Amino acid sequence: MASLIPFLSPQMKDGTYRVKIKVHHNGQRRIISTEIIVTPEDVTKKGKIKNQSIEMEMQKVLQEFRINIQNLGIKSASMNAEEISRYLTISSVKEIDFIEFAEGLITNYKKENKPGMAINYTAAIRSLKAFTGRESININELTSSFFVDYARYMKTANSRSHTKNTKPVGSRAVSLYTGIFRAIINKAKNEFNDEDHDIVVVKVNPFRKFKVPASPAPEKRALSKDKIIAIRNLVIPDENKREILARDCFLLSFYLIGINSADLFENNSVIDGRLKYERKKTRTRRQDKALISVKVEPEAEIILSRYNFRKLYSSSNNFNRAINIGLKKIGKNIKEPGLTFYAARHSWATIAANDCNIDKYTVHQALNHVDETMKVTDMYIRRDWSHLDRANRKVLDYILNKTESLNIQ
Q1: Residues of the chain whose pLDDT is less than 70?
Q2: What is the pLDDT of residue 163?
Q3: Measured distance between the N- and C-terminal CA atoms of the chain, rounded to whole angstroms
Q4: Contact 21/39 with Cβ under 8 angstroms?
């Protein structure tokens, strides 16, 4: 049977100690941290706990651990110290605060420089708090019927003040937020459940009955050739630097086959006439890290030579925000309300397919999407970017009518 030895951690910055437990098993040792905190007044000069209430609390934890090990029976003989420690840690969890757990994930996303994930998770949790009117929710309260009621509530979100600073509303919010809640519950199951040893802290499985609704098709944001030309030819006073930046970056995105602002911010160095980068939005979800290489055509090279975006802005979020502020004003000038940076990507794809007769598979690859039906085949094919280069040149020639000057105002 595993042996358990309590001890005090080195003194922390605030002068207190944390009670920890050494787990010795099968010649190995692991350490479990407890939530028991001891002050200097509670400890003797020899480092022994003299506070009886703390001593009783520590013995209670040890007794619970010993009982849980006994419940393993002969299973414990085949387990190592790491498995025993994980088993004891999980088995000591009585309930999980869903909101607290989610906020921990949000903190990690911020540390991992995943602001989009952090923003979406924060908005989802904000809506859940508004729905329940609570700051704490036991994860096992989140049943299928709970989400049925939540979805009904969110469908009228347009009229609710809690969504004032949240972009998604209505049916799109239901799809996005419940998808996030499903991901959080699955993460909690992975962390706290140990089915191999009959430990199931997260008991609910709401999404077996409640189906996350499909997100409604996004509004088509593609611009016509005339609108692209209007943006290119727009004369902007020199003092309106944000509008100039917005125009130039919109055109850059179009000329570089719909590059996102985050990737443009991180990757504006041209090597051997090409811009090679891993698309930030999907790089962590793909084996190829969403790699793409785009030939920098003269139209794009002219603009890129003017800027170092990292010197202008402290983050890709600030960069994207500045662009979209400028694009709002440009949209008014060309009578295209609601113009956003992403419209450049939509426009390239639509013009390529509809006006330049470029096949959809090539458009699909140019946008750096994955064709699920061709994933296995793609593993055997060496990357060749030349057909994307030809497609992009064809689109740009269509916009420029071939005879127009490459100079950009």
Answers
A1: 157-171, 216-220, 284-288, 370-382, 402-409
A2: 44
A3: 78
A4: no
Instruction: Say how far apart CA 90 and CA 400 lie, in whole Å.
Output: 64
Specify the pLDDT at position 115.
81
Helices then strands, counting H and E runs in the chain, come out as 16, 5
pTM: 0.61
Distance, in Å, from the CA atom of 83 to the CA atom of 12, rounded to the nearest integer, reads 28
Instruction: Output the pLDDT for position 380.
Output: 46
- CA dist 131 and 115 (Å) reads 24
At 218 the pLDDT is 57
Instruction: Give the whole-angstrom CA distance, residue 54 versus residue 34.
Output: 12
Residue 124 CA to residue 179 CA, distance in Å, equals 10
pLDDT score, position 405: 36
17-25 β-sheet, strand order: 3-8, 17-25, 28-38
Contact 20, 8 (CB under 8 A): yes
347: which 2 tokens?
């426009």
What distance in Å separates the CA atoms of residue 355 and residue 347, rounded to the nearest whole number? 11
Main-chain phi, psi angles of 295, to 5 degrees: -70, 130
Residue 249's nearest CA partner among 295, 297, 309 is 309
Q: Residue 367's pLDDT is what?
A: 86
Total residues found in the chain within this entry = 409
Residue showing tokens 């050739």: 225
Q: How is 284-344 classified by DSSP, letter by letter?
A: GGSTTTTEEEEE--HHHHHHHTT--HHHH-SSHHHHHHHHHHHHHHHHHHTT-TT--TTHH
For residue 226 the two structure tokens come to: 């005339």
Q: Tell how far CA 317 is from the center of its chain.
A: 14
Alpha-carbon span 258 to 293, nearest angstrom: 12
Residue type, 18: R
pLDDT for position 288:
66
